[in-house]
DNA sequence: ACCTGAACACCGTTCAAGT
DNA sequence: ACCTGAACACCGTTCAAGT
């Protein structure tokens, strides 16, 4: 009558493991995501998952890849300012949709193809703004550090009691002004 | 002949517990700091420490307070630009001295008196730059988010292979230019 | 007053075994 | 091929007991 199965559709796959991990992380908190709680969520023994993820680090890397794959890129036809604002807003929206998973961005290097795609889009916009290649790479890192840092601060309660939309918008405005100048 | 005692000077105090915790965190990594490894470091049973820290969260809060207490403030006689650069450089030096503990700054809100002291010094400098109270508070958060975000990125390997001194200096320059403009 | 031992409910991961 | 059970070396924390 009762089984522990919460999510028993077909055989276990990497995608099913990662989807369940994302669900658990956002529902219960990233620090409550363990191989054992995840196995419980999937109605499976912990060891069954080791077919699909090498270990917990590999699981977290997979979650980070999945997260960045969700980030849309701006239309190439837009002017560079609009593209940068678009990406800042989308990164912010991503952080709001997945506040727990977003923390992974500052906790481990993102090396997947979607991470590269995102960085390239920002650098490309900065190059169009007339900025040289090295400076554009540095600005890209500055911008992403700020956006990620703000989102993480919000999640971790460092900005408790503040209007974080305003905080975020003010930061982006200041930085884009700095880029233009 | 042999004992487990590594640090057996006198009775256990909160200060001795925190000092040992900082040592373990920097030596073995923040994620390897456990109540049990810390007890081993102190040559004591884990439960002995619960006299001096309420729980592990209280231990981490104590570590964060101790970290910020180490941050020097700039001479009040200096002009505001010099004071901001001084603080950025000192925060950076603090991150280099305690890369593991520094991560705590983005992981939990800093509420101790030294945290307040530091934020006030930055805001005060910004007010002297002619910036209004709300804007100064926001800029203070932006500046600290950037500095902390960069230091954390470095520790977590997000900037692997880059000259992080250059990264940091370029970020501070750009932000201070933005403040002036 | 200060510390400890045993216990409870957890971790990640390996290894041999089951179907 | 795919999954499991038992085991190992860990966690944070409580509670009753020892000196």
SSE map:
Two copies of one chain form a homodimer.
Chain A: H1 14-28, H2 35-42, H3 56-69, H4 80-97, H5 99-102, H6 104-107, H7 113-128, H8 133-156, H9 164-180
Helix pairs in contact in A: 1-2, 1-3, 4-7, 4-8, 7-8, 8-9
Chain A binds a DNA duplex (19 and 19 nucleotides) through loops.
CATH class of the largest domain in chain A: Mainly Alpha
Query: What is the name of the CATH topology of the largest domain in chain A?
Result: Tetracycline Repressor, domain 2
* Total individual domains of chain A: 2
- The quaternary organization reads as homodimer
The CATH architecture assignment of the largest domain in chain A turns out to be Orthogonal Bundle
Structural class of chain A comes to mainly alpha
Helix fraction of chain A? Answer: 55-70%
Which percent band covers the strand fraction of chain A? under 5%
User: What's the N-to-C terminus distance of chain A?
Assistant: 68 Å
**Global outline of chain A:** elongated
Largest interface: A-B, 32 and 32 residues
CATH homologous superfamily annotation of the largest domain in chain A: Tetracycline Repressor, domain 2
Rg of chain A is: 19 Å
Number of strands of chain A: 0
Which whole number gives the mean pLDDT of chain A? Answer: 88
Q: What is the H/E string of chain A?
A: HHHHHHHHH
- Low-confidence stretches of chain A are 1-7
